[in-house]
Amino acid sequence: MPAVNWKAATKVYCGSFFNQFYPCLLCGKKSRTLLCPHCMVLLTPLQGPLCRCSLPMPGADNSQPPPLCGRCVRRPPPFAASHSPLIYSHPLDRLIQRYKHHGDLVCENALEQLLAGMPLPWPDTDVLCAVPAHWRRRWWRGFDQSQRLATRLSLLWQRPLLPALLRQHATASQQGLKRTQRERNLRRAFQCVTPVTGLTITLIDDVMTTGSSARAASRTLIDAGAHQVHVWTLARTLPHKHTLDAHNG
Questions:
Q1: With contact defined as beta carbons under 8 Å apart, do 146 and 204 qualify?
Q2: The domain that contains 103 carries what CATH number?
């Protein structure tokens, strides 16, 4: 299990008590917030028009329902829509990696700074549901980042959090896998363990990469009787060309 960075946490909380200044978690400069204004403007918003899976659709208009990319035309996602406010790129990727893979829980407070003011995209949502990690991964990391993110969004958006999904297989790490490998890795990975019949559910995760986890979890909920599923992630990984266009734009 990775050790929590208690030294960094102590510096932040002592700084907040005595002088209200913190070292920015990304550049180290003193700031009144954990992410300084300079680093905040480096975060890249994800802007439309977007596919249902939140990939940019150059040349499309902002029609409703959203247009579909080539993959989603061939295999439409079971979820009705997805939303990611930010692109998973520098410097946000560093922050999330420190949080997830190095147990730096101070980064959680910085992520909460990003969440402030983010609206719930689907007001008809009945409940939120985190995309769960397997218990072995939770034990290794010491926490489930998607569950903690969903807990904070539940308070922000005033929607109940329903632990409807169980990850029943300890799937191999998704990092570095191709889309087809991810999909094969996630077959029958989730089980619905609470009644969801008729509910409109917003799934919560930290990052959407290929969308394979979101598809698998959504399909499980729909098969269990959910009326509709939306997917919200803090960030979306884009193919290299899309990422370059976003930064150059």
A1: yes
A2: 3.40.50
